[in-house]
Amino acid sequence: MENQELSELRQDLISGDWIVVAPKRGNRPHELETKKSRKRAPKSTCPFEHKQLETVKPILRIGDERDWNVIIIPNKFPAFTHHGVCPVIHEKGPFLVTEGIGHHDIVVMRDHDTDFASVPLEEAVGVFQAFRGRYQTMLQEECISYVSMFHNWGASAGASLYHPHFQIISIPVIPPDIRHSLVGSHEYFKNHGQCVHCALVEWELKEGKRIIVENEHAIAITPFTSRTNFEIRVFPKRHLPYFEDTPPGEIASVVQVLHQALGLMRKTLNDPDYNFFIHTSPVKDKEKYEHYHWHIEIVPKTNIDAGFELGTGIDIISVNPDDAANMFKQNRV
Fold first, then answer.
1. Residue 215: inside a domain
2. pTM of the full predicted structure?
3. Number of structural domains, the chain?
4. Which terminal Cβ of the chain has fewer Cβ within 10 Å, N or C?
């Protein structure tokens, strides 16, 4: 931005949505104030401790029966449940409704006190091995249209338990955010003959301003059209529409970049609460989504949507993504 005092509207290349970079907002009282220390929950009451899990039949395990690193178990309080019968969409007055049939699983790391950014890299890769293994079993399910994989870290990010864990939810419809991204990606491909995410990665590599971590197969950036302060996105460099079809070595490279990016976020922002989630193509009609490019979005809980954001759908950030990238890079070893 040429004049740091002026706000700037930027249009997202995929969704067409506008965001506002407003540097003066960073001068507001309490803006970007560091949060209080994270409150530890005791192991004795944690349902994810090893002894508590002895009575639960695992869906998938990475490691030995007694010396596992990552385990997948059914969610005790699922948002979606599996009944062996596919739901039927029907009318209810002017609305369409269907049953919430699907799966809701929990991916649990072994250590009660070590978050994803702090575990050894091989354990972080193990989490994604579990994601991929469970995802591939979902491909056989006739009723499933989309599989969502995500991590909530901290109470303000929606984590109800302190012990590091992740969630996999499979559902019978394509979620609206995914649908919007698919439509925008398809429109760009139709107009330009290129994957929109590949175009973004190429531009970021050329600019070099917002790259915070990079290796041979993956890249982490602070997006030019970030929707929240200090947002990070991680992309495989190669065009890969489907997470589940990605070779294990390239997934490991993506996890390495994600792992380092989250470490930089923790150092820079004093261990913030955050969400990360995987955006990938739907599980059905795979030939329709070859234009898409799977990736990971990391959203730290630094913004609170207020009247303007909620009333217009336009997000306001007070930290220019270029400046956010510089802050992250200052903490690289």
1. yes
2. 0.93
3. 1
4. C
